[in-house]
Amino acid sequence: YGAPGVEFMGLHEENNTVMQIHFIPDQCQLVTLLDDNSLHLWSLKQHSGASELREEHRFTLKGPPGSPPSATQITAVLPHSSREVLYLGTESGNIFVVELPSFRVLEDRTITSEAVLQRVPEDYCNRRSCELVEALREHPKNPDQILIGYSRGLIVLWDLQNNKATPLRPLGREQLENLYWQRDGSKFISCHYDGSYTQWPVSSDNRQPEPLENLVPYGQKLVPVNLGWSFLSASVNLVSAEFDDPSAMVVLAEEELVVIDLKTAGWPAVHPPYLASLHCSAITCSHHVSNIPLKLLSSSFQVLVMELNDEDAEHVVDHAEADLLQDQEGYRWKGHEKLKTRDGPVRFEAGFQPFVLVQCQPPAVVTSLALHSEWKLVAFGTSHGFGLFDHQQKRLVFVKCTLHPSDQLALEGPLSRVKSLKKSLRQSFRRIRRSRVSSRKRRGGSGNASEVQEANAKFDQDALQEMELAPVQRKIEARSAEDSFTGFVRTLYFADTFLRDSSRHCPSLWAGTNGGTVYAFCLRVPPAERRMDEPVRAEQAKEIQLMHRAPVVGILVLDGRSTPLPEPLEVAHDLSKSPDMQGSHQLLVVSEEQFKVFTLPKVSSKLKLKLTALEGCRVRKVTVANFGSCKTDDYSENDLAVLTNLGDIQIISLPFLKLQIRYPCIRKEDVSGIASCVFTKYGQGFYLISPSEFERFSLSTKWLVEPRCVVD
């Protein structure tokens, strides 16, 4: 990482942890050490006008036959200023020398622990082993001398030309952690496990030194720095100015990178040029907004409707309740009670400020939301149903219960999935038995009681084997209406389209459920001059049941030009063309397993595209993306961008549903990355590569997001 936006990335073929990184001086090269004890040489080389980080060589240090692994386990790496060799300290106390860039071991230059102990006085080592090499540091003024620090405390200055050792600190004291030279080479600092550090002079005649200071930072002036998490192993670096006058200190903690200003009283932390520290807090939800109008500042367990205010405000948050069960008999909520609202005015800081609260009954998780800024309407869905709220009049328009008689699990609260494990297993057995029995009937086979009993036992065994398969290997079969959570509302969508007849279009609300049902409601939104006087009215116009009953994850209406309808207010702000209301409209319903196009207003099937059932491929995210030409601004096309549970992204044409291309994007094992993926309207996307870091990608040749940076 350099300045913001300047970055290079390299990926090891091995799936191992990177333990150390070291730059080769003045070479645009670096060496990485992995936890499998392998070394890798990387180079920054220019290609097509940009620098790329490429792996040049890899190497694993090997000892003599029969030697234990600790003999060559690398613990310290020193790239020499000659740029010709690496010094590698090991757990055995030996220091190996390898040539760059070939990684050839120079055996005649190995510095063994025995050779070091032979060259120091006996009172410095007491005939004990040095143990592992903890630190290697080159003398800043004399490249023929290196400082060697062993974990048991022994520190020696080794002369590379004459193979001589000057002992600087004996064995047996506090465990050594690290060594640092002063710039002029007149002294160095040793850091120890107990938190103490000592300054040591280095004389030109190689006399054995006495410590200048033995400092323990307890009891001195301490400046508390909030690092969020304790850092068990931290790397500290001083950003040096000329004449050894440091201006800042860089602290790499377990969860964040902190820069401390040493020039300002109180040593405050320097604000990084990013929204948050690298691992500040986990991202749990994200949504991308395109085409934000410039006038936006001056004008997505409950639902909060908020407006943007650039000043602090204090007001009462209005409250409304939506009973999704509508007092239906036979349903009883077993979960927690709804949250209590606060009475009286509440003070809010500048920014998004809530002005109305809608509480769903039962108080279950809100699973889908849709906002239409132009109509001043917000739709919300839970596992029990969905509703429509007029946030201008602050009035509930309607609610619709989507529960099936078998959906009792949806009424048991957040722990229902744990409680329903046995029921899910029973349902899995039933489905497999039904499918096998029906297939046997189609073949016209029949058998006696013993054969049936034997077959049932085989069904149970096969069922267990099938449930042990990974999700991507599971066969796709039609779901039953008896499956739990069929009323779970997965998606909501507003559209101005032809729903009743082909001559008049009207506002509409569409909802898709986990059981493959699509509901469509006609809406009557009063004109602007009577918007506060007349209520918004709704009436159910259509209900579609997909035959395979797969969850509906996306709904889209295409206009007369087969173009997706624009977002609210886009046309009013000249951000999109007006939709074609002359030709016939089409409805696209996307389930986890297929894409299906219907004609409107008759809702008759026109086209469909099935995903490959054998691969267990299922749709996880879908959006319409506009792909512009990289050569001319006069051409663009709208396609579907689809992310599957296998982590690949498929581009599908509209309205003919032809697969254009498939990209492998996210590893199929990365469940959180797939679940967090967000698409933009112009063929880009984001997904989490850690709980708090986004990876950005582009599917469009017009919008390249790869940082193309150059290092001279």
From TrEMBL:
Domain Lethal giant larvae homologue residues, every copy: 240-268
Annotated segments matching region Disordered: 433-455
Record field: compositional bias (Basic residues): 433-444
GO CC annotations, alphabetized: cortical actin cytoskeleton; plasma membrane
Organism: Nipponia nippon
One Gene Ontology biological process: Golgi to plasma membrane transport
Ranges for the WD repeats: 11-52
PANTHER family according to UniProt: LETHAL 2 GIANT LARVAE PROTEIN, LLGL SCRIBBLE CELL POLARITY COMPLEX COMPONENT 2
UniProt-recorded name of the protein: Lethal(2) giant larvae protein 2
GO MF annotation, one: GTPase activator activity
Annotated keywords: Exocytosis, WD repeat
Domain of life, per lineage: Eukaryota
Family statement: Belongs to the WD repeat L(2)GL family.
Lineage of the organism: Eukaryota, Metazoa, Chordata, Craniata, Vertebrata
Record Pfam families: LLGL (PF08366)
SUPFAM superfamilies: WD40 repeat-like (SSF50978)
